[in-house]
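Structure tokens
________________
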Amino acid sequence: MSNGIIIIPTYNEIENIERLVRNIFSLQRKFHILVVDDNSPDGTAEMVTSLQTEFFGSLFLEKRAEKLGLGTAYIHGFKWALKRNYEYIIEMDADFSHNPNDLIRLYNTCARDGADIAIGSRYVTGVNVVNWPMSRVLLSWLASKYVRLVTGMSIHDTTAGFVCYKRKVLEEINLDKIHFVGYAFQIEMKFKAYLLNFKIKEIPVIFTDRTKGVSKMSGGIISEAVFGVINMKFKSLFNKISK
């Protein structure tokens, strides 16, 4: 039984999922994997099902009825993992933008170095992004600067989706009160952990844009992040005042 599990949300990742699963299971540290698939029409879930025979007891699949958003997929996965005996719960993308070889570094930052949350950070040592157009790099970098300014968090990569949580963090955060469903979900989770005074540590990683499949980024996701952060900060101040 592994004490660490990787949660991977998928929608139309047939070109990536088998290679990613095999990469993770080839690591020296043994992790379990939970794929949360939003009823991909391209057969992603069926591919995972076919791999489960080979990786019996280590590869799990939760298939949802429709595409419901990144945040709700992770919440679904978190709740699934908390019902089991996992102490370290890691989220990552399915498209190889997160290097599977960095999983052990994330895990060790929590398991050995005492962090409650380890963030695979694109910006803690500069800008470590490969294959993004400059406009997108600038947008992402400025978004993290904006979130730091509004929230007061000292995290350089506030929108990072490559994160290891200790079990106790997800147990203390009220997952039913997480409101964002797009990439702003990543900001909200970090902000809730920050307000609860958990120890958060960033480790540098190189983020490589997907080479297969289609990006899920949209204007609505960016709008949610920009305007949602202000609302989130305002509510946190109101809650302090009302206590």
